[in-house]
Design a protein that fits this description.
It contains 13 helices and 22 strands. By secondary structure, it is an alpha+beta fold. The protein has a nine-stranded mixed beta sheet with strand order 8-12-13-16-7-17-18-19-20. A three-stranded antiparallel beta sheet has the order 11-10-21, with no helix packed on it. A hairpin with a 5-residue loop joins β5 and β6 (39-41). 35% of the residues are buried.
Amino acid sequence: AAARGCGGVWRRAWQRGAGGPAPAPRGQRAVACNARGGAVPAGKSGLAPWVPVVGLEIHAQISSNSKLFSGSQVQFAAAPNSLVSFFDASLPGTLPVLNRRCVEAAVMTGLALNCSINKRSLFDRKHYFYADLPAGYQITQQRVPIAVNGSLSYSLCIDNKMSQMVTKTVRIKQIQLEQDSGKSLHDDTRNQTLVDLNRAGVGLMEVVMEPDMCCGEEAAAAVRELQLILQTLGSSQAVMAEGQLRVDANVSVHHPGEHYGVRTEVKNINSLRFLAKAVDYEIQRQIEELENGGTILNETRAFDSKLGCTVPMRDKEGKQDYRFMPEPNLPPLILYDAKSLPANMNHQQVVNIDWIHERLPDLPSVKRAKLVERYGILPEHSFTLLNEDGLTEFFENVVKQTQMKPKKVIGWILNDLLSYLKQHSLTVKESPVSSFLLADLLNLLEKKDISSTAAKQVLAELWKGEGKTPFEIVKEKKLELIQDQKELEQICQAVIDGQENEVIMMVLG
């Protein structure tokens, strides 16, 4: 039994097994979500439908050589506590110094997400106690963030068909600058927790999305589009496996026409696949809980990827518990545009919004449109090219070096190259077949030196990475097509001469 998921995709719903913690596919419940409109999961009776609501808070690590308020280096997987300044360790008397690069990255991201940039923003202290937060507070932007009121458009497949896509939009409430915390490393063997402060103070952009989504697929699609934008801008490398992009999902359900239900927050999701699964599971869990007469707690939960379910962490703290207060050691952050920039001010000492806006690169949506227009490929193919890191460049390099039309090239790229890479868990950069080798192979095919079947045989040999060229493999395997009619007649005659009995039987009928 399957359940209709958002984006028109038929997806399985979840159940919690009575005999154990592992969730299992549930056949009795359907979670419907219309790609063109809202989401309506059906209840047991079918008379009281449920509307799920999903909002996201995304923490993107800013791509910068140093931290947000100190000169400490930023480096992934460095030796524990080797990149910690006096300020990062919160020693008395140390003061924050704002990193200009982080400010520019936040402005660039805000502009790319259609936000209004606040020319005057403020920093606040958010107080909470945790072992990897030595100051006892985080410097963030709660009251007046650097960017507000934006939007992000993303695309979804209908019925899991790339040829049928629909574009949806999620509102961006705000983007704020803030510090990252350190990292607690739990040693269960010795029953102790170790603290690594290398990450403490690293600059983050928190992108807060309004609750405009209705299921896991929409959430994952929105985050993937944001990830592509951040990588295109260079404001964040956004590598989820390295913790550079972490997602908190706020999920609730309610009946149509009623107020939003009590929400739960699923924290620190570090992959798009887990995000989709966590949101869908949490929606189904809440529906099941309410229909069984229970209540939803305003709590923080975590997604257990092994069990495929969310588990409670702690009660959700209210905003008042954080005791927000203005950061006394940082003045308001003042930004300028061309109109407000004083004539006598040194341009090197200010952040100019218009200057940044003029230098924005083409965003993924523009790149897709250009690929379709320039090469005549299908729109869905442009999505695949951009979604795979380095694939667009690979495709364009092949097109430059081959006589084959781009519409044919894209078939070889997506159907043969990409499927092999996925099968062997390789990235485009790790491909044993370079763009030059593939172009060389396609040229042989286009000149009709080899057949399509032979070309696939040659490609299979190229995957071995033995350093041979397509031409050498064709000669070695004798795969070239014979164009000389006399030679073909001689081959046919030799076959006939060697099969005299069969020829006689065919002649006699």
